[in-house]
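step 3/5: co-fold with magnesium ion
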Amino acid sequence: MEKNYNPINQKLYYSTVIIVITLMLLGLFVENPLLQDPGIGYITHGVLVFLFSVCLVIYPLYKSYFLRLTMIIVIASYFYTIFFLYPDTWSNFIFLCFIPAFSILFYDKKLFHFSLLLNTFSIICLFSYIVKVDKGALFPYIREDLAGNIINFIGSQAILYFIFFISSERLNKQKLYYEQIKHSERLKTTGQLAAAVAHEIRNPLTVVKGFLQMYDNEAANHVDRKRHYSLMINELNTAEQVISQFLSIAKPDKEIETELVDVKNVLQSVTDLLNTYGLLHDNKIVLSMIDDCYIQANIIEFKQLLINIIKNAIEASKVGDSVEVTAEMKKDFVEINVIDCGQGMSKEEIDSLGTPFYSLKAKGTGLGMMICFNIAAKYKGSISFNSEKGKGTTAIIRFPTTKPVV
Ligand code: ADP
Ligand code: MG
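step 4/5: write tokens
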């Protein structure tokens, strides 16, 4: 989406840059009183015009934090320099008031606050200089109404702060909205995909199961064979159950059986089940701080969600590390944390979770998190991740709580 708008933005950006550079050059060369005898002041002016022009031109190529900071410092130096060099141009004072406006364009809270502080500090120094040293000789329009100028300056900073606050709020909301649309689009596609695949597999499975049941009855006298048939039928039953769950993702409105789930119990049984899996690489699952909490959900789906997430945590862990699981009652929801000290994820990797077939594992299916997000959404719960590359991950699972009937 962002890419689609880039060409238009770039065109607009460079047209504006050309206008700004032209205006700075006009200021430097047209009727400039310093031109007759160019000294150190004029050279400084020229250097700052050059530096700022270069920053503006290269900015789209290197949108780094350092370059932004440099641009803020250069633009502040530029406006303060021309204020001192051309005292007769009283309108330069207006530019001083609006220096932080420039950093609003970066939508960076830290840079904006830095720019606001830098400008306030500089203006205090400037006013002190005018009062103590200049005594209104070069800048009478400031000295004569010092109080008025101070009030105007504070007012201008307040206006800028307000503009920044409103626009960044709006931008954040838009970002969130865009993320939500992306996420729901993803859920829609996965739903359709799941339905198609599951539907195709379910029919042949039913046929095979039917025949197996028939042979199972016939093989009544062979104890060994009977055991094999039962095993095969059990496996097919499991496969059928998984497929039904896929189909339930595709049809979220379908009635599903929910019950009061004792989270503590479920966590205990899931841990018992997965501890054997963890033994492969000497990983243990440690249950700590488990409150008594209850949710209303389908127990199979809830277990499936926990198994997927704890399994991912084990798979991300180094040999011998433990995975910690906590469950806490918060105000009106249950919060389960699955904490590992494993490989961790970057922000981009976290954003990709839930995309069908997204997996960084050699034998991964990339369907686990997609199913988990669907299950959580179905029960108005949520799953979020705190993670740092190389340090570990905390998966935070939240479900609305229900009180057990006593
Ligand atoms: P799969 O486990 O089959 O790869 P998932 O949807 O369960 O599919 O997970 C997708 C990917 O997310 C994984 O391949 C892994 O790279 C990443 N991931 C999930 N959980 C964690 C975790 N706790 N730590 C690090 N990476 C994780
Ligand atoms: Mg997985």
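step 5/5: annotate
Residues 146-218 form the longest helix (73 residues).
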